[in-house]
Amino acid sequence: MEVSLFLCLWILLILGGGCLGCLEEEKTGLLRIKASWNDHSFDILSDWGGKVDCCLWMRVTCDENTGRVIEIDLANMDGMALLNATLFLPFEELRSLNLGNNYFSEFQGTLKLSKLQHLVLDSNSFTTMPSLEGLIKLEELSLWDNMLTGNIPQTIGALSSLRILKLGNNYLNGSLLPQVWCKLRNLEELDLSNNRFEGNLPQCLGNLTSLHYLDISSNGFNGVIPASLFPNLNLLKFISLSHNYFKGSFSFTPFLNNSQLVVFDLVNYNKSLKVEIENPTWFPPFQLEVFRLSNCSLSTSARDVLGFLLNQHELTMLDLSRSGMTGKVPTWLLVNNTDLTFLSIGSNSLTGPLDLHSNSTNLNLVLFDISSNLIQGEVPPYIGSVLPSLHVLNMSGNALHGSIPPSMDKMEELGSLDMSFNNFSGPMPRSLFMGSSNLRVLILSNNNLDGSIPKESNLIGLGYLFLENNNISGAISEGLLKSSSLELLDVSDNSLSGEIPDWIGNFSMLTSLALSRNSLEGEIPTGFCKLNKLLFLDISENKIGPASIPPCANLSTMQYLHLHRNELTGPIPSALSEARSLITLDLTDNKLSGTIPPWISSLSNLRVLLLKRNRIQDSIPAHLCLLEKLRIMDLSRNNLSGSLPSCFNQITTFRRKAAEEDKFGNVGYVWAANLSSLTYSYDGELSYFRSLFGVGDAESGEGDVVEFISKSRSESYAGSILHFMSGMDLSGNKLTGPIPPEIGYLSGIHTINLSHNHFSGPIPETFSNLREVESLDISYNELTGQIPPQLIQLNNLAIFSVAYNNLSGKTPERKAQFNTFDQTSYEGNPRLCGLPLERSCAPIGAPPATPPTATEKGEVGSWKAIFLWSFVGSYGVAFLGITVFLYLSSHYTELLFDFIEAHVSFLRLTW
């Protein structure tokens, strides 16, 4: 007995609690939860049931005094879709329940846990908010990263003890109702980010005086930010208002009494928000670590310098891009904030030179973006020494000149360098190519760099190389072979010569290759047969030929192929028959011959087919009509003959307006610098703010570029605009026969050009159904008949020509768009009349007679009477004379009756 008592006291001292284990009913309840889970949970909850006291089980916490279960942590358990709330009925003292990172989509029943304080349901698949009735002591509710829809239920307003509410990353919508939010006076953290809320912010949010974390970013909020929102929120440490549609004005005056603010984040979706920042004498009581004020309009007094930043010395991230800043580059920010890791002041109107202090070194700066400004002069030669820790450097879109500093090689951590769209000249420095082995993205395009690509390179990690639109000459250098991980190479618009090297096939990761507009010659090497991941290939405007694509080429992944303006001969390459993913095929301006092959109908994803200016012959095959996604087809200036197929109305995209699913997607052009890829973290209190910088593999919005004649001029269509464009150009061939009326049912097409052929017959009246057509050219044919008057219904028509045919009749009524067409639209049709032609449609002849007078009418009447009586008298005299003559001469009488009998059958006598 004494031993048991001693043992109990010993356990009490060691564990700080009583001798009681968990209740049997709670133990049974835990085992029921385990049994309801899937098989994977048996591994995670392997000790559940193995020990007598369930308070010793993993993921279970009990009260030290009562032994009752107060915490259950079942996060990351791969939980089933439905969760029965009755499983938790035994746990009457439960205060914390964590079911995050599972696959729950619904609570069956109501959680009746009157003492529950923390309910965490993050990263599940809930579509509706669980019932919260009875959770009167709830202090934390987290449903972040689910699939919640609809508005926030008003029952949340009854949770008066709530301190933390996290509903971010869902699909919640509607406006924030004041009757919900005005009651949550104890709220400290509010996260509504990444939803679909809209409308104005309720002013009563300014009464939540305990709030120190507010994130409403990435929604559709609009209107004015209430002036009463922030004056009383003096405990705020974190504010994120980004990616909404606020307008009006916003002032920093309400933060005069806030000494806690550490993060302020406002990147607006439109520039209609004017931000008022106090004059330079204002010294705020807070020290910011993160300040983002982007895509807003700074007040005039603040554009030269944000005065209050002069007193900030703890900044780690500063983003003032697209804010309308003027004046010189504020490099003093680097001196005042030695912990600065992220500085973005791009897309402003900053001028002057880049004045970096040669005797100051910033070891923490990771990203420096001064792109799209008006900065002039040369880059300081010591830039690599003063900013040695940079990962991302973007100086593009300025007026910088001179050579690229050799000190760049001292930036050993540099992952992305963009110096494009400047006036840099001279050769590419060898030191740059021998520098950082971590360099993943190098963009030097649109400068005046010359010389050749360095033959030596240490860029073993290079994935994306942009050198287009410079003056680089010579052969494609073998120095690139060091970059075996290359995924994109663009050296277009240069003066490269020689042949495409066979070793290009060693870039096994290559997805995009652009060699266009150079002086390359010879044939496409067999090394291309090793490029199994190629999505984009452009070697247009060179001297490639006579052979085209090697038969061994694997084109199964190819999406965009541009071979135009080369010297390719022979038939359309049969290797293309395996390119089932092809979206754009451009073989314009070559010397290809033969027919359009039947296998082309198997390219079911084809949107653009350009075969212009070749020597293709025979008729247009009907199997082209099987390309249901085709949007642009140019077969002009070939030797095609025969009649036009009547099945083109089977091409779906010609029959309807462009839809979202028609879009071309992005080319394999991969812009790597995710310059503003940021991750905010907040855990109870504000943790250290870090930005994540990376070289992403996100495809750019550059889009494919297609040249097509529309509205009588050659246009280049690029990127997303391609999915709004559709057209058919069959001009300059030898096509004959009538124009099929089915062409008139292509109601979604924008351009039709059938000119310079030998079409005959009338213009189909069905052309009045071409509601979206903007350019219609059927000139220089042999069409006859009238122009259908219904064509005036084509309200989008901007270019119209029926010139040089054999049309007749009246031109269409001068209404709507047809009032804009001049005589050049109709000339060359001699039998056509009406405006705007000079030929009138009125008949040519004598002028109409004037009406007779009363006297003339009387004279006309008397003459009619005289004529009538004289005619009757003459007729009577003649009849009597003939009768007397026949009676006196029997011979002539006999001849008369013989004539009648021979020629007038119904008078013959029958005997």
Average pLDDT value?
84
Shape: globular
SS element count, helices? 10
| Distance N to C terminus | 163 Å
Helices and strands: which structural class?
alpha/beta
Main sheet specs:
29 strands, mixed
pLDDT below 50 for ≥5 consecutive residues: which ranges?
A: 1-19, 659-702, 716-721, 904-911
CA-based gyration radius = 43 Å
Strand content: 15-25%
Number of strands: 61
- Give the helix proportion (percent range): 10-25%
Could you characterize what this model shows?
The N and C termini lie far apart (163 Å). The N terminus and C terminus are likely disordered. The radius of gyration is 43 Å and the shape is globular. A hairpin with a 2-residue loop joins strand 51 and strand 52. It has a 29-stranded mixed beta sheet, with no helix packed on it. It has a 9-stranded parallel beta sheet with strand order 42-44-46-48-54-56-58-60-61, with no helix packed on it. The chain contains 10 helices and 61 strands. With 911 residues, the chain is of the alpha/beta class. It is 11% helix and 24% strand.
In short:
This protein is of the alpha/beta class and 911 residues long.
List the helices and strands and how they pair.
Elements: H1 2-15, H2 24-36, H3 40-44, E1 60-62, E2 69-73, E3 82-84, E4 96-98, E5 106-108, E6 118-120, E7 140-142, E8 149-150, E9 164-166, E10 171-174, H4 178-181, E11 189-191, E12 196-199, E13 213-215, E14 220-224, E15 238-240, E16 245-251, E17 263-267, E18 273-276, E19 290-294, E20 297-298, E21 317-319, E22 326-328, H5 332-336, E23 342-344, E24 349-352, E25 367-369, E26 374-378, H6 383-386, E27 392-394, E28 399-402, E29 416-418, E30 423-427, H7 430-433, E31 441-443, E32 448-450, E33 464-466, E34 473-474, E35 488-490, E36 495-499, E37 512-514, E38 519-522, E39 536-538, E40 543-544, E41 560-562, E42 569-570, E43 584-586, E44 591-594, E45 608-610, E46 615-619, E47 632-634, E48 639-642, H8 652-655, E49 682-683, E50 685-686, E51 705-710, E52 713-718, E53 727-729, E54 734-738, E55 751-753, E56 758-761, E57 775-777, E58 782-785, E59 799-801, E60 806-810, E61 831-833, H9 854-888, H10 890-903
Parallel strand pairs: 2-4, 3-5, 4-6, 6-7, 7-9, 8-10, 9-11, 10-12, 11-13, 12-14, 13-15, 14-16, 15-17, 16-18, 17-19, 18-20, 19-21, 21-23, 22-24, 23-25, 24-26, 25-27, 26-28, 27-29, 28-30, 29-31, 30-32, 31-33, 33-35, 34-36, 35-37, 36-38, 37-39, 38-40, 39-41, 41-43, 42-44, 43-45, 44-46, 45-47, ...
Antiparallel strand pairs: 1-2, 49-50, 51-52
